[in-house]
Amino acid sequence: MLTTQPIRTKLNATHYEWAGSALRRLFRSRKPIAEVWAFFSGPQRPARVDAPGTRRLTLYDVVRKYPEILGPSGADPRNQGQKYFFVKFLDPSDFPPFAYVGFRPEAVRKLRMSARAVRTHMAGLLWQDRAAVERLAALMAPRIRSRNAFEAFKAAYKRWAIAQARDNWSADADIELNGLVPPSSVREARACLDDQRRIRQRIVGLMHRIDYEDGQAILIETPTLHAIAGLSLQLHPKTRANFHPKDELWIYAPLRLPDGARGWVLVEPQRTFDKTESGADFFTPYAWQEERRTLGFRKAITPAYLKTFVSLMDAAPRPRAHYVRTAARLQIPGGRIEGRAQWYRVVEEKAWPYFTVRQLRFDGAGAATVPLPHHSFTELHVTEGAVEATFARGTASLSCAVRPDHPALLPATLPYDTVAYRSRGPARLYVFTRPRSRHGA
Question: pLDDT (tens digit, 9 = 90+) per residue, 408-425?
């Protein structure tokens, strides 16, 4: 049954400090949801299958028992036959909709430094930022002795960082420090904040700032330095020990929420591995340490760690076009279109062999019928409206509905030849799979 029908899973969510409100409202959760890993099959936190009689069955179990559902191109032979990729929904929607990615050629040229010197320069800036973060914590700690006090400080710091980031860390935004620090420390605390602002302005000034746009994808190939606004400045290492690089895409997707309001998420397909190194946290560096009843940090960062961190990053400056792709109209061979449906190619190229992304836009009622691939599994994710997928072979058929809160995993073993996607109104469907030409890669 699991090899011949679309697979559904139960909500597989994480709750981080930076979570926005869009996913919480979409899934009607009491807690903020930072990420949803609908079809993750790794052993760390695999999604649970949502089907009658499956109980605690996970995708990790399914892939081990029925590896054929991934198809010859959908399995990663270097990662224990795992799914080659999976798709996340991320919710940094409380933060400005942009990202920092890679190094700008014109900014690096002004430094007149070699790649090695650029790494050393960046390590120095990152440590200056961390030192200012820690100095501020030391000043705040005497007055922050409860969870409520911490939450008030975290909210104030987050508002300050968001306002600064929107203006490239040159805004007049401030934090009301009275009550958060002893009166004698207010001036020093303001100096710490100003140090953070100036250092971060220098750091992000070396990088591309890419504003999110509908129909756009940002390519993050290992080990590119990157930061989603609201998240930490990070990279995915490409080392001998990390033989499963975490290459990924960021796709900005507006959402229409169940209450009729608008929101947005980032749709992120990525390789099925999760090794990440972080060099700075501009928005939520602080955490409450319950066992010690004191202010602490989300992540431990030292000069020695930063030396390793910058040694791993790609320090080569590259043009903006290296990272950004814009959706273009697509005609699929053997397919047909009805009504107000149109295919778009988002990412599908030799330069990006990890997975392909196509978008089916419905500007009104319409349908699109295409051949059903069997060389790889496929993930279907809707970000607006509802889409019905109908699979057919001869007189046999099967249908399933796909919504933003109800994606579908299509096994490569589905016993059908075609799939017809239909919508009665405006909708956006994303179709993720592997390139056929990279069979077994």
Answer: 999 999 999 999 999 999
Cα(231)–Cα(234) distance, integer angstroms: 9
Look-up: residue for tokens 């000034």? 205
CA angle 388, 390, 396 (to 5 degrees): 155
| CA gap 99, 204 in Å, rounded | 10
CA distance 402 to 387: 5
Q: What's the CA gap between 90 and 229, in Å, rounded? A: 12
- Summarize pLDDT for 210-225 with one digit per residue, the tens: 999 999 999 999 999 9
Q: Which domains, from first to last, does the chain contain? A: 13-91+327-438 (2.60.120.10), 98-322 (no CATH)
Rounded distance between C-alpha atoms, residue 432 and residue 269, angstroms: 8
Please report, in angstroms and rounded to a whole number, the separation of the first and last CA atoms in the chain: 28
Exposure b/e, 248-262, CB count within 10 A at least 16 = b: bbbbbbebbbeeeee
Interatomic CA distance for residues 146 and 148, integer angstroms:
5
Tell me if 58 sits within 8 A of 71, measured CB to CB. Answer: no
110 Cβ neighbours under 8 A, 6+ residues apart? none
- Alpha carbon of 212 to those of 69, 78, 252, 265: distances in Å? 34, 33, 6, 11
Number of neighbouring beta carbons within 10 Å of residue 53: 7
